[in-house]
Amino acid sequence: MNPFPGPAPWDEPTVAPSEVVVRGVTVRAGDRVRLRPRRRADIMDIALDGKVATIEAIEQDFEGNIHFAVTVDDDPGRDLGVARQIAHRFFFRANEVEPFSPPAENG
User: Fold this and answer.
1) If DSSP codes are grouped into helix, strand and coil, which group holds residue 80?
2) Most buried of the four, 16, 29, 65, 92, by CB within 10 Å?
3) How many Å is the Cα radius of gyration of the chain?
4) Distance CA 41, CA 102 (A)
C-alpha cells in the first residue's frame, strides 16, 4: 500500500549533480578535499578531522541534500573504499569539506 499520491519518493529517480561548489570552488569526483566533520557524533568524526580525502561520488538524498562519498588518502584500506566496501568509504556534507590544494613545490 502506497501512502503517497502517485509514485513514492524513493521510486522516482534522482540525479545527483556531477559537480558542486564548495567555498567558492567547484569540486567533482576525483578531487581532493580536507575533512572537517561538524557533528562530532562519534570517534570517527574526531579521527577523520583534518584528513585529506578523495571524492569518489557525489550523492543526493530524497530531501535534496548533497553528500560526498570519500575515501581517506592515507587509509591503508583505501582500495576497499574505492570498491564501495563498508568501513573505508565515508559520507560528508558540503559544509564538512574544504577543497584541498597541495602546497606548491619549490623548484
Assistant:
1) helix
2) 92
3) 16
4) 29
Non-local CB neighbours of 62 within 8 Å, separated by 6+ positions: 9, 10, 14
Alpha-carbon distance of 92 to 39, in angstroms, equals: 10
Nearest alpha carbon to residue 74 among 47, 99, 101, 104: 47
Alpha helices in the chain (DSSP H): 43-48, 78-82
The residues with which 97 forms a beta bridge, in sequence order, are 35
Give the tens place of pLDDT for each residue, 17-60: 899 999 999 999 999 999 999 887 788 889 999 999 999 999 99
Q: What is the pTM of this model?
A: 0.79
